[in-house]
Amino acid sequence: MLAVWLLPEFSELEAALALEVARRLGLPAYTVAKGRKGTPALAGSVWTPTYAFPAAPPPKALLIPGARRPERPAQDPAHLAFLAEVWEGLEAVFLGHNAHLFLAEAGRLPPRVAASREVALRLRERGYEVLEAPFHREGKVYATSGGLALLPALGDWAHKAVVL
Questions:
Q1: What pLDDT does 109 receive?
Q2: How far apart are CA 130 and CA 116, in angstroms?
Q3: DSSP characters for 72-130?
Q4: Which residue ranges in the chain fall short of pLDDT 70?
């Protein structure tokens, strides 16, 4: 089961891409957020998550799309509690465009990651090693440069090529 975590002002593209990949792979998927009310996205749409944190079933994989200020929710006790609750049971965590900043703030980002240019600069300032690659897996974390780079990362985890 794949959970797509809707941080405030998340990337619709990355969330929709993950849900479509899950559908094509035959994986059950759902969206999750702090509350059940509508969550605003970057391009102006509002998504109603399938589950709020307390009611979400435990996922096997978690995808965190990029967001406007992803490090802010990592300072919210409810977000940190949800992450702590699901972390041990996860096989994979996929990071969208700048979701690395959320995981870094939460203290769970591995020391070596792949990231887009603007995110790479911020991560290097914090002491992370940034690799030149569309994605890099370290432990359970698939750090990506975001957008379509999520496709090969999801395919790597599923051991199947994802064709859209």
A1: 98
A2: 9
A3: TGGGSHHHHHHHHHHHTT-SEEEE-TTTHHHHHHTT---SEEE--HHHHHHHHHTT-EE
A4: none
Query: Is 7 in a helix, a strand, or coil?
Result: coil
| Residue 163 maps to a domain | no
Model-level pTM? Answer: 0.96
CATH number (domain holding residue 131): 3.40.50.880
Domain count, the chain: 1
And the tokens for 138?
A: 């370290």
Cα–Cα distance measured from residue 105 to residue 119, given in angstroms and rounded to the nearest whole number: 13
Residue 72: inside a domain: yes
What's the domain range around 151? 2-158
Q: How far is CA 84 from CA 18, 71, 79, in A?
A: 22, 16, 9
| 15: three-class secondary structure by DSSP | helix
pLDDT digit string, tens, across residues 33-69: 999 899 999 999 999 999 999 899 999 999 999 999 9
